[in-house]
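Morning F.,

Quick status update on the modeling queue. The single chain you submitted on Monday has been processed. Sequence for confirmation:
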Amino acid sequence: MAFLTFMGGIHPYDGKDISKDKEIVDYLPQGECVYPLSQHIGAPAVPLVKKGDYVLVGQKIAEAGGFVSANIHSGVSGTVKAIEPRMTVSGNKVNSIIIDNDHYFTEVDFSANIKPLESLYREDVKEAIKEAGIVGMGGAGFPTHVKLSPKNDSDIDTIIVNGAECEPYLTSDYRRMIETPEKIIAGLQIVVNLFDNATGIIAVEDNKPDAIALLKELTADIDNIRVNAVKTKYPQGAERQLIYANTGREINSSMLPADAGCIVHNVDTIVAIYNALIEGRPLYERIVTVTGDAVCDTANFRVRIGTNIRELIEAVGGFNIEDPAKIISGGPMMGKALFTLDSPIVKGSSALLCFREDVVSEIEPSNCIRCGRCVEVCPGRVMPNRLADIAEHGDMDAFVKAEGMECCECGCCSYVCPAKRHLTQIIAGTRKQILANRKR
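Structure tokens below.
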């Protein structure tokens, strides 16, 4: 097996040319901002404000509701309008803080948060990351301070920055690497210095040669950081696949990356760590790609969290068709299809994809022809066709025995299936049910 890749995977049309050359542009929200208290893995955040309170940009408006949770900060100045359930991209109503934007964008004094790095103990750095409300910004939303607190710090020898950006159409991480590579490198150095035995890897798919060359040039004199060009293949950016490609180590569904001596962070997460420790700024904005064939223009926006999705569509000139067939939050492989534009950008929002046609819904699935293509491309090395059959019969014990929990729900099997079976959705539904039963 070739190094810097993994078994399986697919090569879908990447669609990145549409927006990859669009420089990051600041977008300031025009209307009210909505902050769901559950926009991360773990316990919901607990509001620190009440209706009628005036808040500033960067002010903490909700605090972590437990160790596995995250603080939330306002991206605008204005008055708390309400705390009530609002719709999110997941299709659920989540208790949220609504702030009436006053358009002054008055900030708190961020300089008060800045302390010389050399004066900070490692626990101080982790506390600053926790206080800034930083989570995994590749979509999972796992609180970063928890990820940086493994059972044994001495076991961690590799910090991987995920710059693969393997999902089609997404270009926000690419623009980060091109426009602010120094922040990525400095943020990675902060994380590497938390562990005695760690070195850093910035992993970038080889379809981004300019980003690779730039990062290699800037890290040439840094002994404990290197840049790896990984093979362009979906899902190269998935945690298990990225770890294997860069270290040759394997993990399964019962393991954490830390069990393999690794910690993986998204590019935007690393920049958020830099912003928190060097500039004193908490996480209240992120980069979002707006793209697809149903919008008049494309863009990579620096967006305040809480901004209404409809505003970003209007900011690129709106739709070029009366009724787009599908709008997705995130990438086309693992993103969530939206049924309303009146949802907020959250910490895990990487992109808005707008398509004139919904190719998937127009296809009628047929019976499995036992071709084995789904098995060939599965990065989890399971048998999706068999798992789907078991899942449809509701046999959860057999599903677990057949290694169904090793599915990473990447969508490769559904993509290549000539019968157009919705394999990923069928398997994912059963996995979700099994995990819910375990929690009970």
